[in-house]
């Protein structure tokens, strides 16, 4: 089955699947009681605590004992023991902690206060001492911003530029968080690899982190066309901000790629195919060869 066909099928099944997942999450929270705050998982990613009701990252860790391990291995091949890595949206650390075990230093920014709490637990459980964590959102200006959290899918928490069709089922709670421009906040902006998983806020974070983009070799992000539309960001805008720093784009798990001149058509084609995908941006300065087809994330 092609990724395009799979994407269309999952769009149709999204609401019934989410209803069942939400129901199971509610039952699990009820069974464990109001004083249970997290569940500990022994996984390939490390020993990790996640929210009691989290059925996405937590569900993968509990039932499969792993989270996006294939993609993680591909990305770890791009860094070495002297690398510095920046992670925007590390969630509970399922990807950031394996990076920290391999590289010299990791810096992370996690906006969700509850998820940040679990991240701190997980750093202690895995004896990580080379990771600096900030409980802040990253964008194109500093100040307070609205942020939406979910107990069922805590990894899907973030700023909401467009109302999701499943928002009612996901039961998002609105809070305020502090946001910073990365270029203004961080002392040393030189990173070899940047991983972004911030649920549609990528464009705005990129606008505020030119100093980091100027030195990094690889940037991993998720392309979410519906969120771009809701925030008033066009594919042309997105292609332009990436084109200022990177020479090539590749879709995880496929042979789909584009050079700098083709970035706009690259995104337009993904939109026409209805794909939400992980994309690796590669700078001209990159030294480590990238496989023609990178492993894709778990689906």
Give helix and strand order, one letter per element, not per position.
Answer: HEEHHEHEHEEEHEHEHHEHHEEHE
Average pLDDT rating: 86
Query: Count of DSSP E strands?
Result: 13
Helix content: 25-40%
Radius of gyration: 18 Å
Largest sheet: 8 strands, mixed
Strand order of the largest sheet: 5-4-3-9-10-13-11-12
What is the CATH architecture descriptor?
A: 3-Layer(aba) Sandwich
Number of helices: 12
**CATH class identity:** Alpha Beta
Proportion of beta-strand residues: 15-25%
The CATH topology name reads Rossmann fold
- Give the distance, in angstroms, between the N- and C-terminal Cα atoms: 13 Å
How many structural domains can be distinguished in the coordinates?
1
CATH superfamily: Vaccinia Virus protein VP39
The coarse silhouette is: globular
What structural class is derived from the secondary structure elements? alpha/beta
Poorly predicted regions: 162-169
């Amino acid at each position: 089955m092609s990724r395009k066909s799979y994407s269309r099928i999952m769009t149709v099944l999204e609401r019934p699947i989410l209803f069942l997942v939400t129901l199971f999450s509610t039952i699990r929270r009820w069974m464990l009681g109001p004083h249970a705050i997290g569940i500990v998982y022994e996984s390939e990613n490390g020993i990790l605590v996640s929210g009691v009701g989290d059925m996405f990252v937590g569900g993968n860790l509990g039932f499969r004992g792993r989270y996006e391990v294939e993609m993680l291995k591909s990305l770890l091949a791009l860094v070495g023991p002297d690398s510095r890595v920046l992670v925007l949206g590390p969630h509970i650390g399922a990807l950031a902690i394996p990076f920290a075990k391999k590289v010299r230093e990791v810096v992370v920014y996690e906006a969700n206060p509850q998820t940040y709490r679990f991240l701190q637990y997980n750093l202690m459980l895995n004896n990580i001492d080379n990771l600096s964590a900030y409980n802040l959102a990253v964008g194109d200006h500093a100040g307070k911003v609205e942020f939406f959290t979910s107990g069922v899918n805590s990894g899907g928490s973030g700023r909401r530029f467009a109302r999701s069709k499943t928002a009612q089922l996901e039961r998002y709670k609105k809070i305020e968080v502090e946001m910073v421009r990365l270029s203004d906040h961080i002392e040393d902006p030189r990173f070899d690899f940047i991983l972004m998983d911030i649920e549609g806020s990528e464009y705005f974070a990129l606008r505020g982190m030119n100093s980091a983009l100027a030195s990094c070799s690889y940037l991993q992000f998720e392309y979410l066309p519906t969120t771009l539309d809701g925030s008033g960001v066009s594919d042309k805008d997105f292609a332009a901000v990436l084109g200022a720093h990177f020479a090539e784009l590749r879709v995880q798990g496929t042979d789909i790629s584009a050079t700098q001149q083709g970035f706009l058509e690259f995104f337009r084609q993904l939109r026409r195919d209805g794909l939400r995908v992980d994309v690796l941006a590669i700078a001209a300065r990159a030294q480590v060869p990238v496989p023609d087809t990178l492993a894709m994330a778990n689906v």
